[in-house]
Specification:
34% of the residues lie in helices and 17% in strands. It has 242 residues and is of the alpha/beta class. It has one domain: Rossmann fold. A seven-stranded parallel beta sheet has the order 3-2-4-1-5-6-7, sandwiched between helices. The longest helix has 19 residues, at 22-40. The chain is globular, with a radius of gyration of 20 Å. The structure holds guanosine-5'-diphosphate and magnesium ion. Magnesium ion binds at residues 55-56, 84, 129.
Amino acid sequence: MAEKSTRTARGTIICDNTTMALLKANDYVAEAIRREMDRRGVLLINLTSSPGSGKTTLLQETGKRLKDVLRIKVLVGDLETERDAERLREAGIQAWQIVTGGICHLEGQMIMQALENISLDDTDVLIIENVGNLVCPASFDLGEDYRVTLLASTEGDDKPKKYPRMFFTSDLMLISKSDLLPHLPFSVDRAIQDARDINPDIECMTVSALTGEGMDAWCRWLVDRFEQKRRSKKPEESYDVE
Ligand SMILES: Nc1nc2c(ncn2[C@@H]2O[C@H](COP(=O)(O)OP(=O)(O)O)[C@@H](O)[C@H]2O)c(=O)[nH]1
Ligand SMILES: [Mg+2]
C-alpha cells in the first residue's frame, strides 16, 4: 500500500493556499487594482458606513459641487436594486451598480469585474460606495487609496468603539447629518475621541449634505488627495527596443 505523504507540495513558485485564506486571495486582487490605479493616477476611494448614513446623498452633492473640477465616477454596491446608481445618474454622475445578491460587502474581484466595463481614461476619481455595513466591508481591501467612513449623528456616538475594525482601517471619518446634531444626544467630541483611541491617525470632519455644512472642507480634502495622487503617478514602464 502506498504511503500517505504529509509533505507540502513545493514548486518553482511558492503559492499561498488561498482556498483556506479568502481574505489573502482578496488582498492579491486588491493589490492588482492598486497598481492599475497608481499607473493611471486615478484616486480610488472606498466609502463605507451603516445603511442610511448618507453615502449616496453625500456623493450626489459632491458630484454637483465638483462637476467642473474632477471627473468622478462611482461604483455602488447593494444587495438588491439599481436605485443608488439611478440616484447618482440623476445627479449627473456616471455610476454603475454592483448587485451582490445577498453578499454583505464588496470584494476585490467584484471591483475587478466591474472595471472591465468602465473606461478609466477620462477618470480622475473613482469612488466605491460599499454595501451599508460597518462589519464585513472592514475586512476587504478594494485597492483603495483612502477609506472614508460615515458616522451619522442619528447612529449614536458609541459606534467607533463598537465597530473598531472599520474605524481602525479608515483614513477619514465623516460625521454626517450634522444638521440633526441640535436634536440628538450625540457628542461629536466623544465620537472623535473614541475613533482616535482606536486609530490616532484618523482625520475627522462633520458634514451635512442637506445644509451644505462641512461640504467645502470635504470637497477640498478630495481635490487635495487627487492632486497628491497625480503628482505621485508612477511613470509608464518603458522598454528599450534595440
Ligand atoms: N437630515 C439629513 N438627512 C440626510 C442627510 N444625508 C442623507 N440624509 C437622508 O438619510 C437617508 C439615507 O440617505 P442615503 O444617502 O440613501 O444613505 P446611504 O444608505 O448611506 O447611501 C435619506 O432619507 C437621506 O435623505 C443629511 O445630511 N441630513
Ligand atoms: Mg446608498
